Structure formats: structure tokens, C-alpha cells
Amino acid sequence: RALGLFSLIDSLWPPAVPVKVPGQSQDSEMMTTNLPPPSFCYILTVQSGEIHVEVDEEEQISNLYQSPAVHGLKEILRIDGCNERCSFWAQVLYQRLQTKHSVPIDQREMLLFVTDSTLQNAVHGIPKVVAVSVTASCVLSMEIVETLSAGSQLVFFKDALWGNGRIICVERTVLLLQKPLLCSAAGADLSELTGPVRLDELDSTTQAKSICALRGTVVGVNESTAFSWPTCNRCGNGKLELCPQDRELLYCNQCSEVVTTPVLKMQLEVFLSCPSRSQSTVKVKVGHEISVALFVLLTMLLFLQTYEVQSVLGKEVGLLNCYVHSVTSHPNCVALEEIVLL
What we know:
Elements: H1 3-12, H2 73-77, E1 84-97, E2 110-115, H3 117-120, E3 130-134, H4 142-150, E4 153-163, E5 166-169, E6 174-176, E7 211-231, E8 241-242, E9 250-252, E10 257-259, E11 263-273, E12 281-287, H5 292-304, E13 316-329, E14 332-338
């Protein structure tokens, strides 16, 4: 079944206007009650090569369309049904493109990690952040893409699907920065987050492809994977070249200028002992811009070559915001990567 098509039926049924039923009087009350929903859909496509699309600027909405009722994320997570239509406001905290190298970039699924006040204020047992899967069939406007690239944003998710513990954006899901027409917000808490965002801490329930907060004690350092690279202090370009005129200077092709004060970025992999996951090996890839203590360690490793690993073992680290790459039981290991929230 095509989830998007049957979600479309759900948005149109029962009809808001009388339905013509063959053999019945138009005055019959049976027109809009006790009618089974359609069991099929027609898929309309454009012939190859015909890419021109007419847009109705008046934004007239069919009177058959049932406007979405907006709910808080906490309420949506409690829905028992499968592939239920849902609409909500949420603060986008982090976005990540799934890395399946066999799939073209424009066909990959993207994960948006979102939260709202109903989750941030929830008691134990309710996640503080949920992942929204954006399929390749869900078209994001350039406004949304550019806004999310610039930072965290309150976004309206219209006609997403909830089922099997996931929120999915399909072909008919729309992401907006403004409140859409005919949208009922009754009972929904749309207030923006005022305080700092809290993530769930790493524990025995943490799953792969999620984000969490992490604290622990350094028990090991992977020296073989430590490296650094200079980036442009203006645009962040990490592929600098030697300046043709002066081989002692770096040159940025994106800015077409000499980089006199490059920003050094570093990466290091450490092993932590975490009380919340005491039976697991916790491996974290960290960067210096976030972890000041580990930045000092990595600087010594790369440039001084004089430190001893023993001097950093036992150091406390946290809270770090991390993306969970994998969780395995044999061996019992959690692989994470430190991230910067939008």
C-alpha cells in the first residue's frame, strides 16, 4: 500500500459535503453517514518531458478537504493506530541525511530531530526528542532547506503519518514556517521553547539513529584516528590549497582569497565509561569546537607529541550532545558522534 495515498483518503473522508449516491434522494441523511471509505485511489502523473506546472495563486481549498487538527508531540506518541494522519508544530534541533552510499543523494531519507514544550515538560518515560523521517518523496521547499541550514526553527508539519513508533513525512506531507489556511490549533501547545533544550541521557533504552546527551569518564584514546585540518575562517571551507604566489600561505577557492588566520578543526575518538550504560563499551567521536578539555588533549597529541595517555584517563566528560550511530549486543558497544544542535 502507498501510505501517502491512503492518508489522502483519510483526509477526505468522511466527506464534508453531501455525496451523490446513485438511487437515493439528495435529501437523504444517508448521504454523509454510514458510507464506507473508498478502497482505491487513482495516481495522476505527468508525462515525461512535461515539467511545466500551473500554480493556483488564490490557494483555494476544496470543501472536500478536512483541515488538519494540530496536536502536541506527546499526544501523537500516545496514538495507538497505524499510519494515522497527524499535524504538529515542532522545534527542529538537528538534521541528518542517511548515508546509504548505494542510494543517490536526492533519494536518501533524512532525519529531522524535533521537540516541543509537551515533550520537554513531560515526565519520565516520554522521550524529550523524537525523530521525523523525511522520505525522498516529500518535497521540501527551498525556504525550509535554507532556514534549517541557518539554525533551529519552529516548523509546522502538515499531514505527516504516525505508525509503528515513527513519524514519517511522505509525498503529501507539507513543511511550513507559517500557520496554513483552515488549520485548527485547538488544544495544541504551540509555544516556542524558552529554556535550554534537554536531551535524553544515554541509557539501556537508547537506540541507533537517535540523539542523546552523554556523560562519562575517559578510559581510552584512539591515537591512530586523531587528525586535524585547517578551514577558512570566512566560509568554513575545509579544502584549502597552497597559495600559488606564496607557498607558505593557504588559499580558499570559494572566497578566492588568501587565508591568513585559518581555523583548525580536529577530530578524536575516545572510549568512555558511562554509569548509565555500565555494561557497554561507549565509543565517541568528538571535535575540538565542542569539547574544550579534549581539544587540549588533541592539541598535545598532534603538535607536542609529548603527552602520556595516562594523564587524561579518568577525566570526566559531559554533557555532550551525540548522534547514536549503532548499538550492538555482541560485542556490547555503543558508537556515537558528538554533534552541534541547530
